From TrEMBL:
Transmembrane segments annotated in the record for this chain: 118-138, 144-163
Topology versus the membrane: Multi-pass membrane protein
Domain named Cation-transporting P-type ATPase N-terminal: residues: 50-136
Phylogenetic lineage: Eukaryota, Sar, Alveolata, Dinophyceae, Suessiales
UniProt-recorded name of the protein: Cation-transporting P-type ATPase N-terminal domain-containing protein
Amino acid sequence: MSRGIELKSFDHEGRRRSSSVELSGSAECVRQKLDLLRRQSSEDASSALPIHSLGRVDIGARLRTTIPGNEDASCRVEACGLTLDEAARRMAEDGPNKLTPPEVEALWVRFLRTAFGGLLNILLWICVFAEVILLLVYPGQKDLVTPAILSAVILITALLQLYTEVKALSSMEALRDLQVGEAVQVVRMDAAQRCDLSVSAEDLVKGDVIFLDAGQRVPADVRIIHCSSLEVDNSTLTGETMPELRSSAAEPANMLSTEARCLAFSGTSILKGSATCVVYATGDRTFLGQIASTMKSRPPKSSLEIQIEHFVHTIARVALGVTGLVLLSDLLAPKLRSFSEILENCATALFSQVPEGLLPTVTLSLMIASRRMSRLHVVVKKLDAIESLGCVSTFCSDKTGTLTAGVMQVQEVLLPFGEALEMKSFEAEVSGRKGSMEALATAGLLNNNAQVLQTSSGELDVCGSPTEVAIFKAASTMLGLSIRDAAPEQACFEIPFNSENKWMLTVHRQQNEEFPCRVVIKGAPEKILSLCKTGQDFDCKLRGLMKRGLRVVGLASRQLKAAETPETFEGAALSDCNFPVSGFDLLGFFAIEDPPRDGVKQAVMKCKDAGVKVVMVTGDHPATARAIAKCVSILGEDEEDDGKKSESFKVLEGDDLDSHLPEEDFNGLSASSQAFWQQAVQRARVFARVSPLHKRIIVQAYQFYGQDGLGDIVAMTGDGVNDAPALKQAQVGIAMGIRGTSVAQEG
């Protein structure tokens, strides 16, 4: 018996596809073939869905890799991942997991362009050529000094400029060497046997199953299939300082991939927890690579290039005009002159108009400035950027890691005292409140997953979630303990923090027969207050802190009596714990923020005094951006927008820009959009919740509409991948040091 069946489906581009197979043989054989067709149909349907919306089975089918079922969710036991042969084939097909470096011009080509390119160099070489012609016309006149010296000046100037740029490139390569990726734990298969390997990040391919732990950088774009209390730092991509939680659960298909919590992107960092992931994009196909691909366009000319070009054009017109008049006067003169005399007079007239010393003077001046800046640890990639920096009229700056330190720190602690909250500095001595401070600090160390690790230099450092690291350091200072002595003790039971609970709970055993255990809970203020015995309303005080951009974390504790203490603690939420989780005693709150860098406020004030407009451009939350902008004097204390962004334009968000974005350039915008950008350029001081595309367009807007339509000279500072397109667009791009990503430094 034989039956034919055709299974019709549509691929991700909407084209109709069909699979046909002849079903024959036993019923079991037919059933197996039908299952195969159903899986093929499922793969066709899932290929149109983003990877963050797929389950484990569909992820394996999409990436053609082996992923175990839920019985080995963490992929720590069974054979899984790619075979060694398949991994080698994909490496040969897709290439190594690294960004394609920008094309580097050969040294000899760069030298020829520097020595013979540009109108000024052309004029100088014309003068040399004229002198050589005169030598040929007048064999007896051996004036070799003039053309030789002029040629030497041009060539030596080109060599000096080339030397400075090559030295800067070498310094940038040294910075990139400090960012070399670490080895990654990956599992592959050899003849169906599990192989646990440690490979370089560059050797990863799509479909690899990898394991990531706290402190590691994410080496590629990955889909998380299993994780434990995972938090990542996305600040290099998004600009947000707060760690972001991650999970393995699939997200809706219509959600943006950058917002999906089951994805982690190349270049970000694991702050807390561990994860098992599947690589789904490598190299230029990663999100980071897509941003880097937007930087292929040629940057705008520097102000020095424009000024010299304008000056040389003027000089060329004058020189040619004078030379033409000399030629005309020689031809019309009563005394008949020979060809050699006419040529000599014209060459002299041309030579006298060309500023031979301009090129070496400018180059040497910029080299001296570059050397002085190198003493301040500034690597100058292009010499003419030094002059442009002195002409800057608008200074756009990222927030996280640029204006701020990029490290979360406790700024204040709040202690409950009767019906009020007392705000104290955690470093200050508090008379009469020492017991409350110690109780809060002790709880901050107990309920804490930060780890004390030894660095390569032999020093101790605290690693983990930025919030927990900040609380750990503040609590150890409050108790007068060193980092080594403050290392948190192991809890006997823990319910980790997650986005649904918004709290973390730990249970600790103590030497007390009446109260053998102590429960400590930490989390969002509203959650902590709802579990406490206190009936006070502290919302007004806490809202004031949050409005200033601080993250407020509350702590509370309660003692468990012997009768309330189970033999084994169980539970994953408040509703299913087998011990009391109410009636806590409020201990206080930690107010945490990423503080401004030292000296930033003074630098902003100096820029304002010099007539330079300073603008913050960040992907962070508007409230945080506004608070930091006021702290560093980008926004004045009286410049409060009261939420009326359309009227004040002081603080604008990415959503405000979306309806006014140009398709190609600003010339094609509607009248209303042009009016919007003119107002934004004149009045806005903070742009928050903006994407990398927004940042580049904001820089373009200042270059187009600034200074009443004449255009601003714009400098942009940043350190993250999200800053790279804007760094490339600005006349002066400043990438921030070792923290700056290689993509940002390429800008």
